[in-house]
Amino acid sequence: MSFEKTAHPAARIAMLAWPILLGQLAVICNGVLDTAMTSRVSANDLAALALGSSIYISVFVGASGVLQALSPAISQLNGARDYAAIGAEVKQGVWLAIFLSIAGGALLSFPQPLLALAHAPSELHEKSSLYLRWLAPALPATLGFRIYSSLNHALARPKNVMAIQVVMLALKVPANVLFIYGGLGLPALGGPGAAVATSVVSWMTFAIGWLLLRHGSYYEKFRIFEGSFPAPDWKAQCALLKLGIPMGMGYLIEVTAFTFMALFIARLGEIVVGGHQITANFGTMLYMVPLAIASATGTLVAHAVGARRFDEAQRIGDSGIRLAAVVSVLLGMVIWFSRSAIIRAYTPEESVIAAAMPLFAFISFYQLFDSIQVTTAFVLRAYKVVVVPTLIYAVALWGVGLGGGFILGFDSWGLLKGKALGAAGFWLGNSISLGLVAIGLFIYLRQVQTRLSREEK
Questions:
Q1: How many other CB atoms are found less than 10 A from the CB of residue 411?
Q2: What's residue 224's pLDDT?
Q3: What are the distances in angstroms from CA 428 to CA 20, 170, 421?
Q4: How far apart are alpha carbons 361 and 184 in whole angstroms?
C-alpha cells in the first residue's frame, strides 16, 4: 500500500506541508528583502514601504482569497476523481482572476482615501502612492500564478510551486539592488524601487508557471488547453463567488486588522511605525509555518470529503490542528530568547530596535492561538463551510482586536488615565482577538464534524 494510505495523518500532513512552507517562506522573504534593503535607504523610505505594502497586501489578499475558492473545489473534485470538472474550474478561475485584477488595480492606482487614514506627512504620502502605482501591474500576474499554485496544492503536488517561488526569490535580489539603489543607467528609486522589482519578477513567475502547466504531461487529463477558451460561465462564476467571497472576506478581515494597525500606528511617527513594520514582517514570516500545515491539512481533508469519507476527514483535521499547535509553541519559545538578534538583523537603527523590542513579546506568545485558528479555518474551508467563520473573524479581529487596540493604543476612552500603550496596545488587542477566533472556530468545527459523521452513518 502507498505511503498516503498507510502513514499517520500527521506524517502525511508533514510530507505535504514542507514544500508549501519553503515556497511560502520564499515569498515572504521577498518582503523581508524589501524591508531590510529599504531600511538602509532612510527611515522615511521604510515608513513608506510599511504603509504602502500594508495596503497592497490587503488588496492582494482580498482578491487572492476570493480566488482561493478554487482550492477546496478542486480538492473535492480530485477526491471524487472528476478530472474534466477540474479543468473547467481552472478556466473559470482565469476569468475570475481577470475581474479581480481590474477591481484591485483600480484601488492600487488611486489609494488616496486609504492613505488619508494614516494622517501621514506629505512626503510619506507621496512615496507610498508611488509605491502602490508601481505595484498595480503586479496584481494580474500574482493572481494568475495563484491559479497555478491553487491547482497544484489542491492536487497535493506543491513541489513545482515551491521551486518557482524559490527562483522568484533568487531573481528578486538583483532586481531590488537595481531598482532600489540604482544601476545600469537607472536612477535609485528607494522604497518605490522595491515595487518595480516586484512587478518585473511577478510577471516572470507567472510565465514560468503557466508554461509548465501548458507543457506538463501530468496536466493533460484536465484538458485545460483543449479547444477554444470558453466564455465566462456565470453559473460557475456565481458558485465560485458564493464560496470565494466569504473566504476572501475572511482573509481580508485578518489582513486589514494589521493594515489598519499600520495606518493608525503611523500617527505615532516613523520610528514607531518602523518598529511595527519589522515586527509585523517577521510575524508574517512565522505565520507561514502554521499556514503551510493548515494548507496541507485542508487539502487532505477535502480529498477525504470529496470521497465521502467523513470520519477520515475528521482524523486528518484533528491531527493537523495538533501538529500546528505543537510546532508554533516551540517556535514561540525560540523567538522569545533570540528576539534581540532577530531585530538587529533587520536594522542598525537603535531607535527602531528599541521600538520593536517590546512588540516581539506578542509574536512570541500568540503563536498558539494563531496556529489553531488558521488550521481550523482551513479545515472548515475544506468542508466548504465559510460564512460563519467569516462572521467570527469580523467580530473578533475588527471589533475586539482593532477596536480594542485603538482604545488601548491611544487611550481614546480615558481608561488608562492618559497612559496610552501606543503600538503595544494594538498588538495586545490583536493577540486577544486571535485567542477568541481560535476558540470560536474550533467549537464550530466540532459541530460541523459531528453533523457530517451522523450523516455518514
A1: 17
A2: 85
A3: 30, 36, 9
A4: 43
Q: What is the pLDDT of residue 2?
A: 45
pLDDT at 417: 63
Domain holding 97, by residue range, is 3-456
Chain-centroid distance, C-alpha 93: 19
147-198 confidence digits (pLDDT tens): 999 899 888 888 989 999 999 889 888 888 888 887 777 777 777 788 888 8
pLDDT at 415: 65
Helix (H, G, I), strand (E, B) or coil at 416: coil
Distance CA 391, CA 396 (A): 9
The pLDDT score that the predictor gives to residue 239 is 86
Instruction: Give the model's pLDDT for residue 3.
Output: 45
**Is residue 301 a contact partner of residue 382, using CB atoms and an 8 Å limit?**
yes
Residue segments in the chain with a per-residue pLDDT below the cut of 70 = 1-6, 117-123, 412-418, 455-457
Number of DSSP helices (H) and strands (E) in the chain, helices first: 19, 0
Q: Cell numbers at residue 99, please?
A: 475581474
> Where is 221: in which H helix or E strand?
none
Q: From residue 317, give the alpha-carbon distance in Å to each of 13, 16, 32, 372, 384.
A: 10, 14, 31, 11, 14
Residue that has been written with the C-alpha cell 492613505 in this structure: 115
Mean pLDDT computed over every residue of the chain: 85
Instruction: For residue 227, count other CB atoms closer than 10 A to its CB.
Output: 6
For cell 497535493, the residue is 156
Least Cα distance to 353 among 361, 345, 343 occurs for 343
User: Count of domains in the chain?
Assistant: 1
Alpha carbon distances (Å) from 254 to 41, 267, 291, 433: 30, 21, 13, 10
* Helices (H), ranges, 220-309: 234-265, 270-306
Report how far residue 109's alpha carbon sits from residue 112's, in angstroms, rounded to the nearest whole number.
Answer: 9
Return the bridge partners of 186, or none. 183
87-91, long-range: CB < 8 A, 24+ apart: 87/222, 87/223, 87/224, 87/226, 88/233, 88/236, 89/236, 89/240, 90/147, 90/151, 90/222, 90/224, 91/224, 91/229, 91/230
| pLDDT for residue 45 | 74
pLDDT of 418: 63
Exposure pattern of 354-375 as b/e (b: 16+ CB <10 Å)?
Answer: ebbebbbbbbbebbbbbbbbbb
